[in-house]
Design brief:
The complex is a heterodimer. In chain A, about 25% of the residues lie in helices and about 35% in strands. In chain A, helix 2 runs parallel beside helix 4 and helix 3 packs across helix 4. Chain A is elongated. By secondary structure, chain B is mainly α. In chain B, helix 12 packs antiparallel against helix 13. The chains are: A alpha+beta, B mainly alpha.
């Protein structure tokens, strides 16, 4: 059963279309991540689901009930914000129980729910403190607790980890995933951090300009991006692109760019290829092999190393191939030096090809 | 092992050309502004014979509090000789409701204008702010007519209404800017928690806006207490505030000019704003600064 359904949702601020007739279907218990660059409308979409923004057109349905015109509190959602948004003059306990007191629940019920949330999030020792006396990680935990006590089906997260330092972010990310596994609630999570998206999500919706570009599992998005934008957005360092043409010789499809022809024998076409189409050939840095492994690959070439970036676990090598910038990710054990010639090899099976005309996968 | 030469905290010279210049200027400036106050205090403690000697800077030989007692209790303000105490209580009766009403309305205004944007709220705010730039002398006569039609002319209610109206633009601006510095996510979180307009105002926003309330109270208390014009025009003879009565005492020209009584009366009238500044100076600066840094 679907937990959250968005039907043809549009939102305009004056003449600016922020969301354009957007459709989305989130399954019950699913962890959905909305990912995109700044200004793509992902936070706006979350605010529309929460009822904090009035939509211009379309519907929001949560748990089978049309809540398009409902107040946020009546939608069965809990929300966690980037800046924690804890009430500064209230203790942690009062922060957690505020919504319940507003709803007029009996005291015992309130205490039980607060205790349960405090136990789940391990903030029992902090209940009497004020938010100002908490660290960033503790504050965010309290903020999650405030959503938790509401006993709702859908959790909305608006970049909850962006204000934390890198180490804490990694820790809390794992905790969030555990929390999701333990509670089994539907969670919709907005972020601009692709690592967060890839690690947390059951499915990722990549957004740009108020539209969902692709909605798929993390691996699906990573391995088979549907268009040029998604391919370039996911992955760091980004996918290598080469401009060229699709050509057919002896019943074999080939990609040709300046001074280079690559066999597309292993490539699975999504659409029927057309002779002479201008396309972009994309291959991820981590799918390029060097040394002995390169020799066994169907496509081979030699590059001149321009720059070496050791990153600890692996090393990123910058170079040029076919007139475009070309990066590859190699084992940090590999002995490399600047200006060295390096034989590389890769397979079209792991590549993505996009039409230059509309940017869609070929 | 430390090498020879500078180490640790850099020593600061207390007597340096820079400090001499700085403190010299500050002391001169302080003297310049304190001298009139000194003359007033000294004069108010002298008897008339001593004043006639003309040494205005000399401290009193015989200290007397009679001028203070007379100023408070029996100085003549026009026809009545009941001193300033009547005006003092009139001022209090004008001040308290005006301050309370104007701040209550302005804080709700500012809150609504920052968080509950409605169609035309920007226009409404602009018009309100525009009100702050209209010289109020222009509005005096129209207000006289309006108050007369409302039956409020020459009443306590009338002058309170006028003070409330004239305090509105600047106070609303003050509160709106303060609330604009409150993260909007806090407001959103409260809405998700189910709180409505008033609950968010009273339980979330009010507890965190003490500094700006202090600023508003100081502005209004000093402003309304020091007001002369509205008091003399709208309050009516029976409700004249302290400032108006002070003027009547000082400017009534029967017989000898009692400088000591006049000085005492002036000091009494100025006492309340002075006390407010002394007590709340620190809070005032903090409130203004809080708004300035975050807004």
């Amino acid at each position: 059963m679907s937990s959250v359904v968005i039907n043809e949702l549009s939102l305009n601020f004056g003449n600016v279309e922020v969301l354009k007739s957007l459709n989305l279907d989130v399954a019950e218990g699913e962890f959905l991540v909305l990912l995109g660059p700044s200004g793509c409308g992902k936070s706006t979409l979350l605010n529309c689901i929460a009822g904090l923004l009035d939509v211009s057109a379309g519907q929001v349905i949560i748990n089978g009930i049309n809540v398009t015109w409902e107040e946020p509190k009546d939608r069965g959602i809990g929300m966690v914000f980037q800046s924690y948004a804890l009430y500064p003059q209230m203790t942690v306990e009062k922060n957690l129980s505020f919504g319940l007191r507003v709803a007029g629940l009996p005291r015992k019920e309130i205490r039980d729910r607060v205790d349960r949330a405090a136990e789940i999030l391990q903030i029992g020792a902090l209940l009497k403190r004020k938010p100002g006396a908490l660290s960033g990680g503790q504050r965010q935990r309290v903020a999650i607790g405030r959503a938790l006590v509401r006993d709702v089906d859908v959790f909305l997260f608006d970049e909850p980890l962006s204000n934390l330092d890198a180490k804490l972010r990694t820790d809390l990310r794992v905790e969030l995933k555990r929390l999701h596994q333990r509670l089994g609630n539907t969670m919709i999570y907005v972020t601009h951090d692709q690592i967060e998206a890839l690690t947390l999500a059951d499915r990722i919706a990549i957004m740009k300009d108020g539209l969902i570009q692709q909605l798929d599992t993390p691996l699906g998005i990573y391995n088979r991006p549907e268009n040029r934008f998604v391919a370039g957005f996911i992955g760091s360092p980004g996918m290598n692109f080469m401009q060229g043409l699709l050509e057919c010789s002896d019943d074999q499809w080939q990609f040709s760019t300046e001074g280079l022809t690559m066999s597309l024998q292993d490539y699975q076409f999504t659409r029927e290829p057309v002779q002479g189409t201008p396309v972009e050939f994309g291959i991820r840095p981590e799918h390029i092999l060097i040394g002995d492994n390169a020799a066994s690959q169907p496509i081979q070439s030699v590059i001149d190393i321009e720059l070496i970036e050791p990153m600890g676990a692996d090393t990123v090598v910058w170079s040029k191939l076919g007139g475009s910038s070309f990066t590859l990710r190699v084992d940090s054990e590999a002995v490399l030096s600047k200006d060295q010639s390096l034989p590389v090899g890769f397979s079209a099976a792991r590549a993505s090809i996009f039409s230059s005309a509309d940017g869609l996968r070929v | 092992m430390l090498e020879a030469g500078p180490h640790g905290t850099k020593p600061r010279r207390i007597v340096s050309p820079h400090n001499i210049m700085l403190y010299g200027f500050l002391i001169v400036a302080a003297l310049y502004w304190l001298l009139p106050l000194y003359v007033m205090v000294v004069t108010s403690l002298k008897g008339m014979p001593e004043i006639r000697l003309g040494n205005i800077f000399a401290p009193p030989v015989e200290v007397t509090f009679a001028p203070w007692a007379k100023a408070w209790d029996s100085a003549c303000t026009g026809l009545y000789c009941e001193g300033l105490k009547v005006g003092f209580w009139n001022s209090i009766r004008i001040l308290v409701p005006s301050v309370v009403i104007s701040i209550v309305i302005a804080s709700v205004n500012g809150y609504a204008l920052s968080f509950w944007r409605f169609k035309g709220s920007e226009v409404f705010f602009t018009i309100l702010i525009f009100g702050a730039f209209i010289p109020y002398q222009v509005l005096i006569y129209p207000l006289v007519i309006i108050l007369r039609e409302l039956g409020l002319f020459s009443t306590l209610g009338g002058v309170i209404l006028v003070h409330t109206i004239f305090g509105m633009p600047i106070l609303t601006l003050l509160f709106r800017n303060y609330f604009a510095s409150v993260p909007v996510e806090l407001f959103k979180a409260a809405r998700v928690d189910g709180a409505g307009f008033w609950r968010i105002f009273f339980q979330i926003m009010l507890p965190m806006s003490l500094p700006i309330f202090v600023v508003a109270i100081i502005l209004q208390v000093t402003g309304i207490w020091n007001d002369f014009l509205f008091g003399v025009i709208y309050a009516g003879t029976r409700n004249f505030p302290m400032t108006v009565q002070l003027n009547n005492i000082v400017n009534s020209t029967q017989g000898v000019k009692e400088y000591n009584v006049n000085m005492a009366a002036t000091l009494l009238t100025g006492a309340l704003p002075l006390i407010v500044y002394f007590i709340s100076g620190k809070l005032f600066v903090r409130g203004i600064a809080a708004g300035a840094v975050k807004g």
